[in-house]
Every structure is written in C-alpha cells, then in structure tokens.
Amino acid sequence: MTHADHPGPDLPDSADATRPGSPDPVPAHSAGERTHERSADDLVAAARREVAASERSSAAPAGESAGDVIDRYTLLEPIGEGGMGTVWRASQTEPVKREVALKVIKLGMDTREVVVRFEAERQALALMDHPGIAKVIDGGATRNGRPYFVMELVQGSPITDFCREHQLGLRERLELFGKVCEAVQHAHHKGVIHRDLKPSNVLVAMGDSGPQPKVIDFGIAKATSAELTNQTMFTQAGQIIGTPEYMAPEQAGMDGSDIDTRADVYSLGVLMYELLTGTKPFDMRVALQVGYDELMRQIREVPPAKPSTRVSGLSVEEATTAIPRRVNVETLSRRLRGDLDWVVMKAIEKDRARRYDTPTGLADDVARFLAREPVEAAPPSATYRLRKFVQRRKKSVAAVGVIALLFVGGAVGTGYGLVRALDEKRRADILAEEARDAADAESIARREAQQNEERAVAEARRAKVIKDFVVETLGSGSAMSERGSQDKTVLEAMEDALADIETGRFSEDPYSEAELLAIIARVFSDNGRRVEAEPLLVRALGMQRELFPGDSEATATMLSNMGNMLRELGRPAEAESFARESISMQRRGDARGRARAMSLNHLAAARGDQGFREEAATIYREALDQLEADDDLPSEEDAHDPGGRERRRSIEIAVTRHNLAIELMGLERFEEAEALVARALEELRRVSDDDDPRTALFLDTYASTLIARSAFDEAIEHYTASLEMRRRLYEGSHPETALCITNIANLHAMRGRPNDAMGLHVEALAMYREIYPDGHPDVARGLQFVASNHAARGENDEVGPLMEEAVAMYRELLEGPDLRLAHALAFLASQREVTRRFTEGHELRAEALAIYERLPDLDAEVLRDALEKAARSAWMAGRSNYAAERYLDLHEDLAQSGAGGSTALQEAALNVAVNLRDAGRAREALAYLDEALALRADPRFPDAVLDALELDVLSRAGVQDRAAAIVEARLESARATHREGSLRMVGELEDLATALLNLGDARAAEPLLREVAAFYAKRRQPSWAAHVNAARLGAALTDLGQLDEAEELLTAARSGLADSIASKVPPQRLPYYECLEALARLADARGDDAGFEEWRELLATTRPYFDELRPTDR
Amino acid sequence: MTEDPLDPETIVRAADGDDAALGSLLRAVEPQLRASITVQPLWRRDLDVDDVLQVAYLEAFLRIGSLRERTPAAFRAWMRRLVDSNIKDAIRGLERDKRPDARRRVTQGGQGSSARTLIGQLGGPGSSASTALSDREQIERLLAAVARLPASYRQAVEQVDLAERAVADVAAEMGRTPGAVHLLVRRAHDRLRELLA
C-alpha cells in the first residue's frame, strides 16, 4: 500500500478508499444488457469495475482527475482521502523526476478555517527533518484556487497491518514503537503536535536496517511555539479534530484551544495498546451503538481494561487475528501484566498531568522494560482511582436512574442491639450476654437505689426474673425437646418465649414483661424480622413509659433502639425523633460514654438516611469522641470483667468509625473514608472472633473500596467471603445476606454481565419480599435492580411492571423528598420513552425533577442532568412550553457556572429556540437564535439544519426583512445547485415555502408549494410529507381566496395526516395542528361560524399543549 | 464436482487488497458456486443465477479485507455464505412482493418521506444532541452515504427506496431480474448501515 490517508472514523475498513486504480469505471450493467449465464470473467470483471468506480467516485474530487497537471506535477491516481483532502500519487518532472504524494483540499471543505490550517501544515512540516516523518517537498495552489502540498511518497503499510503481516513478536513490536515515539518527539521539538496519530498515519516499510516507520499527515497539527500560534493551527472552537478511538480525553472535551503534546502521548499509548493486544481501548462498534455523546463520555471518563486483562478476555477466534503470532493468550497476558500494563495505562491516563510528559518519556520506559529494568510507571494510587470511580458512577447512575452509591451497605446499629450469631456455637455467648445485660440492669438498679431503695429492689428482682427466664427458655432441655430438635436457635427460643408471654406468664409482672418484649424485639430485629419486631418494641416502650414515667436510662436505651429499628424499616424521620428524645433524656441525666454514643450513632444514621450527610458525619464524630473519652461510669460487671468492658467499647468505636466512613464516602471524601474503614476492620478483628457478623459487613464496605480501585476480582472475593459468612450465620432470608448478594450482582452488572447479575438480583429480591411482605424500600430497590438487568438485555417491556411496583412502593413508604424515588421515577420515565409512551415519560420526569430540586446536598451535575432529561422528555411529549422553560433553566445554569460560549450552552440555546418556536413563542426564540447558530462550527449540526431553524424562527417571529432576504438568496442558490426534483431541492422548497407562509406571503409561497406537490404526485404512495405540503398549499390558497381548491386539499390532507399521526412523536405532529388551524380559517373565510367553532374545538381537545398557549398565541 | 485447488498465497494477497488475485480466486470457485445454487422453479423467472453471483462478487471485492482466516477452505466457505445469503434475501423480497404485508404498506405510506422511511428501515443513525433537528440532519447524512455506494447499489436504493418505485419497474430499467433488485437493495442497506454507523 502506498501513502494512504485513511478515511475518517465513519468509514469501516472495507470501505477503505485506497485500493489501487483499475480501468475506467463503467456501469455494472446498463439497461437491456442482460444476457443469460455470463462467463465467470464477465461477472468478476463487472464486479471489480463497479467497486473500483465506487471507490474512485468517493476518493476522487470532482475538481481533479487523473492526468491533470498541477504546476510541475501530473496526477496519476487518487490513493486516499482524509478528513481534509484527497491524496494523489503524482509524478514530478523537474527539477528531479520522481513520484510524490500530492494532497489537495477537497471540494466542499475549502472554508477559510481549513485553508488556514492547511497553510499552517505546510509551514510546520517544513520545519521537520527526521527519517520517521514524511518530508514536505512543495506547496501551492491549483488553478481553482485550492491549496495543495506535495510530500514524500511513502511506501508502506499501516503499522498494525505491518506487524500482523510480518508476524512481529512482542519485542520487535516494542522496538518499532520506540522509533515512532522518537519521530513524534522530533515533531514536538519543532513545535508541532500531530493530533491525529493512528495506525493509518504511521506507515511502515522494510528497510535495510529492519522495519522503518514514517509518520504521515500532520494535517491537523497544532503549533505550540509562539511564532506559529499567532496565525496558524487554529481550530475552530468546538470542532473535534482527530479519530475518536485515538483521541485524548481533552480532545473529546471539545476544548480545542487547550491541546498540548500530551494529546499525542495519549494517541501513542492507544497505538501501543493496539500493537500489544490487537484491540483498541475503546470499541467503536460498541460505542457507536450508544451514540456519539456517549462515546465522547466514555473516552473522557471510562477507564479501559488493562492490556493483560483485555488479552485474557479475547476469544480464541479474536486472539488468532489480534495478537502476535507464536504467542498464546495466556503467555501474552502474563507478559503484559505488571510493567507493560502500567506503561500503557500511564500513557492513556485520562488526566494528562498523570501521563508521560513526552513521547521520549514513554519510549524510555518501553526501553527500560526491554532491558528488564524497573519502569517509572506505577499503578495509580488507590485514592485517585476511588475518586475517579465515584465521579464516573455518579453520572452513569444518574443516566440510567438507579441508586447512587450502590455498593455502600447500611449503617450499623451499635451497642447491645447489634446482630447476634445464631448457630449452636454462639448460643452460649448470647446467653451469657443476655445475662450480663440483666446484670447491667441490676447495677443500674443499685445506683438508683440510693434515691429509691424500693424501686431498686424491684429492678433487681426483675433482673433475676428475666435472667431466669432467658436461662430457662434457651437452656432447658424441655424447651428444646418440645420441638424435638437439638438445633433450636435463639430465634426459635424467642418465639417460644413470646408464646409464653402471650399466654400470660408475666401478667403479674409488667416490668419483666416490658423488658423481655424489648429483648425479643431486638433479637427479631437483628435477625431480619424487623416487621415482627416493631409492634413488640412499641408495646415494650409503651409499658416502660407507663411504669417509669419521666427520665430513666432504661427508657432512653429503649427509645434509642426504637429509633434504630425504625431507621432500618426505612422510616428515618420517625427514627430521628426517637433518637433525639433518647439523647435529650440522656443529657438531662448527664449520661455520657457508651449509652449516649449509641443514641448519637442512631441519630446520625437517621440524618444520613435523609440526605443530611455532613450533619450525620459531625454527629458520628461526636459519638466517637464520647466513646474515646471513656468517661462513663464503670458498671459492676465492668469491675468484674475489665477486659470485657474494653472489648465492648472497642467494638462500638469500630462500628461508629465504620459508619462515619460510609457517610464520608457519600460525601466523596474517600481518602478519609478509606483510612477509617481499614482502621475499623482492624479494631474489630482484634477484639472479635471470626464469626462476628459485623466482620462481614465491614468486609462489604472494604470490597466497595476495592471496586472503587477497579480491583474487581478481589472485590468479588471479599464479597463472596462475606456472603459465605452470612449464609452460615443466618438462616434463610436475611437483609444482610440479601444485601451482600445484591452487591455481588451489582458488580456483575457494572462489568457488563447482566446475565450473571440477573439470577443473583432475583434471589435477593425474593429474600427481601419474604422479609418484608408488606413492602419496604429494599424491596423496591431489589425490583429496580432486576429491572435494570432487563433493561441491559433490551427487554424493555419487562422493565415497566417492575418499576411501576417499585415507584408505588417508594411513594407509599418514603417520607419527604427522596433520591431513591427520584431515581426510580427517572428510570420508569426512560422505559416509557423507549416504549413511546411520551406523555407518561414527561410526567414522571417532571415529578422526578421536582424531587431532585428539593434534595439537600445534591450534586449540581445530577440536577443538571435531570433538568436536561425533563426538558427533552417534555419536548418528546409535545409539551413545548414546559420544555422551553426547563431549557431556559438549563441555559441559565450553564451560563452561571461559567460555561459561556461552550457547545453545551449553545445546544441549550438551540433547544430553547426550538421549543419556544414550537410553543408559538417565536419572538422570544429570537433572543437565542444567534447563540444557537454558533453551532454551525460544530460538525454534528449540518448547515442545512441550522439554516432551516433560522429561517423558521425569523419568519414566525415576523422579522420580515431578514427572513425575506434569506428566502430570496436561498432560492437562487438552490436553483443553481440542486437538480430539479431532487430530494434536496424539495427540502429547500419546503423550508422556503413555509417561511413565506409564516411571513404572510401566500402568493410567493404558492408556486413553490405546487412544485413540491408535483414532486410528491409522482410517488406511488401518499406520504406524511406529501400531506403536510398539501395542507400548506391549502392554507396558502385560503389566504388567496381560492377556497374551493383549498377545501379539497385541506380535507384530504387532514384525513391523510390523521391516519398516520399515531406513529409520530408529538413535536412531529405540529403540521397536523396547523392543518386544523387552516381549516378553521377556511370556515371563517366562508362565514361558516359553526364550522369554525368545530375546528377550534377539535384543536383544543387534541393538541396536547393547547391549554398552555396564551390567547395571543392562538 | 472436483474442486480446483486454491493457492493460499493468492488468498493472502487478495485479502491484502490485490484485486487481480481476488479475481483469479473467484474464477476458480465459480463452477462450484454456480452448481451449488438452486433456485426453486417458482422463482426462476424472477431470479437469475448470474445476478446472485455478481452481487456476491461485488460483496467479495468490498469485504475481502474482513476475511479473517485466510485459507482455501475458509475462503470457499465465506463465498458460499455470501451466495446463500443473497439467494435468501432475494427470495424473501420476492415473497413479500407476492404477498404484500398490510403492515408494511401502511408503514411505507404513512411514515413520511421516502428518505425518512429508509432511515427507519436502517435502524436510524445515532441521534444528534438536539433531537429536535435530527430529522433533517439524518436525511442529509443518508443522502451523502447513498452517494458513496457502488453504482448498482446506489441505483437500486435511489429507485426503490427514495423514488418509491416498484421493484419490477426498476428491474426492467436496470436490465436485471426483480430478485436481483431485491438483493441489491438488501446489500445496499447493509452497506448504508455501515456508512451511517
């Protein structure tokens, strides 16, 4: 292959326009040419000619053809086409005879900006002299005034092809790559950035001293030296230059003014990635399915798999073509793992400050690897990756509308109320603990006895009663034998105890009954049976208040436990009031230390659950201070068992620290959180045994930090260990087990494995449903995850019912504005939009937005995203006024956040203009028009589209002079440019006729509309566009008083439009409503008042936002 | 039928873009391909074996670069697949013509202009940031892509999809069988999907 400027990313490989020329193109067949059974030669030759012709037609500009002479050069054949120009193989006759590559700016692209860039390229290339860079020989202008330049004709293949064809091994590939880095470094020394490095711009030929690469096409180079930057290398604001897969994130950010040499380092990193793995970090095929914006987002935000990981994931078939021959997948993956992984990952860092500063820096590290020396690149720090992770997650979470911070478990309760183990081994511990609790009660009673001896005696007696009862229930052979099992658990014992209480065993001793109920409630609650626990604790608390009016430490503890339980039941506001009451009571009693710390812990968790994370963190710190101050009075038991006291305190400190860490993760203060979790886990392990269920919870939190560091496999290991522990500790369904399963499933889902995730999510949901038969936020969340998997598998119809149930559950259970409901609404809305239920989608989005706006501490990006989606959804539903207002909000928000002049701001302006126009507020739209039209610089918005908008807004707003001038100029230009009866011509005529109608010039519009009508009349079948045109012609004729023909046209058009209106999204239905308006005007013109009212009535009942229109718009 | 041996080197050269090499391979496999094609009597008037082969060859020239395994067996299998899918697509099109599907007719008649219909059939290119304007933009992109098709593909799309003419009329004008036009349209759609991706 010769010097070939590969086409842009929109061309697949097979459309490569670089195949050598062949005889003159002829049509494959002309009419009447058919013969029966032609020879193979005929068929092959015809196919070959046709392919050659189609390639030539796209490669060769209309302006030049083979044989043309440009100055001293004779064009021989087109050999490639790039974004900017066409490259020809050409012969030079003087002063030397040789073949060269000649690049001419292609027709249709010779805007001033391109010419300026081209000029810059010639100067920049002339400065460079390196065997690895194609030399510039000459430059000038063609007779048509288009610039061209002449460069060394490079014989060679794209570097990736070369490596594959020559079966280069890893070392040879790396050595070759080093040479490419040297060449790019040379360019950087001369102040030239390539900005579009990719395999097709690095051609390799076999020379005397082995493979020699040459970098071609500095077509979008940008000078960094002061002399050059003044006039050249200017990239029009916002225009993306480069090939997406090789493009540095800062280029994808579209801030073209701030690209430096490190953008090339990034592209070199991608090139190295491809040379090592045979794949690119980003798969365009996948990315293209999700759209251009999403691809840009991925380039900016999503870290690619490490080369070793990518290679190990290749199928056998892929590996055969992808990787160096003579190496199998396992070997290659092993060789890449470690140093080469880090070298590549450092080169393709999203943050350019973390990349190699120069291509030489990259080449040096490659050389170090080859010399078996340690490389400079090192794994990114954990903190850095954690931050990136959450930044990424936040967006994707907002995008799909699922729950934020999926992997963070709930806060843990503290003190006595913590989860207890239930197996045989733990039974004795539980019993001992219960006994100690009772002993605590005894000691409390003793202290109080100084003031109230009688009460103290009662307390002591009660403590003994409780102790005896617990011992009897748990420990007696009879209790166990009643069930005929030696495996009775504490839960079963509590059920038996409850049955005993309900049969009136303590009817004479309400004090003991209250305390026992509280114990049973706590055990139920800790074992996932919170729904059953709640009424027991309510009953216990009621009895407690009645029996001990006023403050008491026992009441305070019960209040605190009540708060914790309510929080776990998803009712944080209620929980908060109990926690506050408990704390007030403790303050009045001057309680310090552990008891108060426990209440503070529950209060903090309740506040955190309501979104007040900063405040929650402050409260946790206060609790930690209380615990660490260690100034509570030692109990009698403490005196007997000083080690046990220390152990309990250590556990409470660890738990509080863990909870604080979770809150800090929610606040994105990851460094602090990471340190806290690590310390908490260490503290817990030091004082607890292997089966402490809190270890499992802490392991989960730790796993979430591993996920943040992208250490997915390790995270799965930790989750699995935690899950095994839970399955061992808890029987059947348990919230903690379900949460752990959910976390593992989420990890699969996050890694794009919805099928692996689905089974686990379904299992977790079934558990939650069993635990909370009457509904619970966790059930809703489980529904949402199952729905997410369906969505990921494209099963959109399955998503609807699941999310309807989730939303209904959240609505019933959540108090106040809540992020979970907002996300669920947004998710359901997206399902409605995908299934074309636009009005419902809009209403759900609007509700979600209203919630987001009321949430404290909500990230501005999340809010902006919700705003944008609500606006777009409203547009789809035809609620133009609502959409316009939301786009105005977005525009203001972006402007205030300093995004002035950015493409995002211009897009917002465009959407404001479109929606104001559609809402009949074209005059207001005028104010945003110029800003929107600045998008002409953006390649995503073709001029024709923006021209149409400009004229439409101007004409609807009645800006007569400007609109009329545009119509005149465009009509003249269209007649000169487009073929009569071509689709483009018809498009132009439709735009112009509509504008003339808007301007009230029906006379001028009429002939254009008739021309369009003639075009459609030739079609066999009537179409929406044909009906729209007929309606407009009818409207024009109404204005011109030709009422009979107008009526015929409008009536037929209305019927035609009505037939297919169901297939249109509401904004596309505008012409139908305009047809109804025209019918109303026709009736008016005929003096048919009844008809007029009838059409108006129909308009009012069918047009979705008719009510929103102000009288002046109608 | 005995197979002419294929030279593995020639296959590598062909896959690397040597048109002459590919031409010689196609000539070598043609007898066997031709023998493998069976068109049911019902469709013989509407589908010519040559048409199937020629479009298969066109595809071969366009896509040879994507041939992964460059061995004689793989090349033969690949050509066989191209031929088979052409026959299948042609006959599907012909069957649709004979038994028009009411839904499809409604779609064509009601979905707006022909270009919009075609965009719909192609699955639609990625939407722009401003969906409000995507309709017009998509048409522009489509027309640019159509201009880049091989001549017979382009002609088929322009006449059948954009001008909404009957396949039989277009076939007569192009000097092809209706089956050939169906498969040209089908292959052209594949190509357009790639160009618009």
Automatic annotation (TrEMBL), chain A:
Iron keyword on record: no
Positions contributing to ATP binding: K103
UniProt enzyme class: transferase
Biased composition (Low complexity): 54-65
Keywords: ATP-binding, Kinase, Membrane, Nucleotide-binding, Transferase, Transmembrane, Transmembrane helix
Positions with biased composition (Acidic residues): 627-639
Segments crossing the lipid bilayer: 397-419
Region annotation (Disordered) ranges: 1-65, 627-648
Pfam families assigned: Pkinase, TPR_10, TPR_12
Biased composition (Basic and acidic residues): 31-53
Nucleotide-binding as UniProt keyword: yes
An example molecular function term from Gene Ontology annotations: ATP binding
Domain of life: Bacteria
Domain Protein kinase span(s) in chain numbering: 73-370
EC numbers for this chain: 2.7.11.1
Name recorded for this polypeptide: Serine/threonine-protein kinase PknB
From TrEMBL, chain B:
Pfam family, one: Sigma70_r4_2
Annotated region described as Disordered, given as residue ranges: 96-131
The keyword Transcription is annotated on this UniProt entry: yes
Gene3D superfamilies xref list: 1.10.1740.10, Winged helix-like DNA-binding domain superfamily/Winged helix DNA-binding domain
Domain RNA polymerase sigma-70 region: 45-95
One GO BP: DNA-templated transcription initiation
Keywords: Sigma factor, Transcription, Transcription regulation
Stretches assigned to the RNA polymerase sigma factor 70 region 4 type domain: 140-188
Residue ranges of coiled coil: none
Keyword set includes Hydrolase: no
GO MF entries: DNA binding; sigma factor activity
Family affiliation: Belongs to the sigma-70 factor family. ECF subfamily.
The protein, known as: RNA polymerase sigma factor RpoE
Organism in which the protein naturally occurs: Rohdeia mirabilis
Highest classification ranks of the organism: Bacteria, Pseudomonadati, Planctomycetota, Planctomycetia, Planctomycetia incertae sedis
